Amino acid sequence: MLPIRRLRELHRQHKRVPVSVKNYTKCHVRNEQICNKLTSCKSCSLHLNCQWDQRQQECQALPAHLCGEGWSHIGDACLRINSSRESYDNAKLYCYNLSGNLASLTTSKEVEFVLDEIQKYTLQKISPWVGLRKINISYWGWDDMSPFTNTTLQWLPGEPNDSGFCAYLERAEVAGLKANPCTAMADGLVCEKPVELADSCIVGVLGTLPVNHRFYCEIVRLVNLCN
């Protein structure tokens, strides 16, 4: 992991090219209201759905279509749900072909969105794969290398079972996770990819895209971004 001092040096060497958002008109009203109230670059940069415009000296909402068609912009991630019946590896391949990965649902906002979307499948009940798998006998980890804390999402009673090495999301009386053999079939999958701004932020500052892009891009946003 790079020290904060080194990140500052890298940021000075590779200034991020500003991304103008003033021509976009499809921002969520809620984000516009929040962003317009932020009057400094640093307070604006702390909000994942806002961006500081240096020329206008104002905080603006990021456009909702940064993720592309078929994706939903949730926080600093783009999420996409598919109802196809797949094994875990085939689900990963599906997401990979869309420039994403199986979703690491590490924020309450992401979890709430996915659970709400699952409820909309009234004709077909889906229990989608997520990017959580068993690393060793007692440790489960997300695909983006984030630790699984069992707080944002929790195991259902009796889970994880001994035969399961990959996790899927079940919404019955209580929503939660179940473990399944990775070769088993699950009804649905959740893909995730970073928003375009996050990618350009990391590549512009670090020159490469690390595995845990969320952490690095958030550091870049907070460390000396407004100087």
UniProtKB/TrEMBL annotation:
Record field: transmembrane: none
Q: Which Pfam family, any one of them, does this sequence belong to?
A: Lectin_C
* Residue ranges annotated for the C-type lectin domain, each copy included: 74-192
Q: What InterPro entries does the annotation carry?
A: Attractin-like_CTLD, C-type_lectin-like, C-type_lectin-like/link_sf, C-type_lectin/snaclec_domain, CTDL_fold
The leader peptide range reads none
Q: Which SMART domains match?
A: CLECT (SM00034)
The source's superkingdom equals Eukaryota
State the name under which the record lists this protein: C-type lectin domain-containing protein
Species annotation: Limosa lapponica baueri
